[in-house]
Design a protein that fits this description.
274 residues; alpha+beta; five-stranded antiparallel beta sheet; 4 helices; 15 strands; 25% helix; 27% strand
Length: 274
């Protein structure tokens, strides 16, 4: 029996040795694998990384789109961009121009009371100067007038049925200067290209200049109304593409209208009688 114990002890010794050597061998192999991975990284191979359990997962960034303008707001913005920078309208230019029918720079006179004497003679070359001279040599009812023609300017005054303006030259009358004698007063109002009727009719007494239309704005006079304080006034007008319209007359208190409205046709010549 004592002899039989030796093989058992030898087997136990070998088993113990194996238990010690095996872990060492395994550790040696693990080191080789680690060194292989490390050497691969140094050679440019990518070493994958893995998300560890419990790492926070980034959420996609949320955003709120800025509200697009409503159609109305958009249209307002566009209209604001297109708004002109205080550009004056034709009507504003006409209203400012009481030079709007200005004869040689003379101002529009105010209506005088009957019997009031003039402080100064009318400017030479105007309708009032012409009618005053005519009435001095031939007392009675008279009307004198002159026209401002495109590309020409003011023409000389004529009286009592003579033609003022041009025919066959395609030139527009832009303004008319009128003055009367022996009819107490005259009232007139012009219809102007792109502006329409003047804001109100103008009235002046005998021997005073009255102006309708514009000068310096290149706007044609297309129509007008005329009335006198006493008796009858007759007018005839030559219109682009139409010719002479024929005499039209009206008594005091009733306007006579000549020309056209809304047809973009120029007045080219006129005649007046009282």
């Amino acid at each position: 029996m004592p002899g039989s114990k030796k093989p058992i002890l030898a087997g136990l010794a070998i088993a113990g040795t194996m238990l010690i050597v095996a872990p060492i061998l395994l550790l040696g192999n693990g080191d080789k694998k680690t060194s292989n991975l490390t050497s691969g990284a140094t050679q440019g191979n990518t070493i994958p990384t893995f998300e560890q359990p419990g790492d926070p997962i980034s959420e996609p960034t949320s955003f709120s789109p800025s509200p697009s303008p409503s159609p109305k707001e958009g249209s307002k913005a566009k209209s604001a961009d297109k708004s002109p920078s205080a550009a004056p309208t034709v009507a504003a230019k006409v209203a400012r121009s009481s030079k709007s029918a200005i004869a040689a720079g003379s101002a529009m006179p105010k209506k005088k009371s009957k019997g009031e004497k003039k402080n100064a003679p009318p400017p030479a070359g105007t309708a009032a100067a012409a009618v005053e001279k005519l009435a001095a040599s031939s007392p009675g009812r008279h009307i004198c007038y002159r026209v401002h023609v495109s590309d020409i300017g003011w023409k000389s005054p004529v009286c009592d049925g003579a033609m003022a303006g041009t025919v066959g030259q395609a030139r527009a009358i832009e303004a008319i200067n009128i003055s009367v004698a022996g009819v107490d007063e005259v009232t007139a109002r012009g219809y102007i290209q792109n502006a329409g009727w003047e804001a109100s009719g103008k009235t002046v007494p005998d021997d005073v200049n009255l102006y309708i239309g514009t000068t310096g704005l290149s706007l044609r006079l297309e129509a007008f109304t005329l009335n006198v304080g006493t008796g009858t006034v007759c007018v005839n007008s030559h219109v682009q593409n139409i010719g002479w319209q024929g005499a039209q007359c009206g008594r005091s208190g009733s306007d006579v209208t000549a020309g056209t409205m809304g047809k973009s046709l120029r007045l080219e010549a006129v005649t007046f009688t009282v």
